[in-house]
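Z., the sequence and structure:
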Amino acid sequence: MSIKNFFSAARVYAVVGATPNETKFGYKVFNWYLARELPVIPVHPSATHILHVPTSQDIALAIKRANEEYPNNDGISISFITPPKVSESVLNEIETKQLKDQIKGVWFQPGAYNEEVLGVARHLGIDPIVENGDCILVSGDSYSVKSSL
């Protein structure tokens, strides 16, 4: 696993599994990005706002929004905080809608992946794929510093 391409000064981040429920990790991970003033888009199928930020209902809409709001971005990195079936579905949407060239990295939070999910991500050619049990809440700051964010 190489994390060097996950973070970038011109990157936009999407949090798939962001939630308005303050007790859940999807909320905490989304808030992690906000607290660091990183451009981040929450992805949730039904919530309209999380921490006063408008949500996108799916990854295609999040990517479209990222390109509209941050036209000089160098791509999208995605944090997944979803069950493996949902993670796999989102990756399949990326492939079906031909969005894979815009994805520069994925970070699967613990519990958001299985071997099938990792296989789909590798098939898409996404690098880096963070899937070693690292949680962005624990290791994100150290990785972002190493990436010269």
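The mean pLDDT is 92. Residues 87 and 112 are 7 Å apart (CA to CA).

Let me know what you think.
H.
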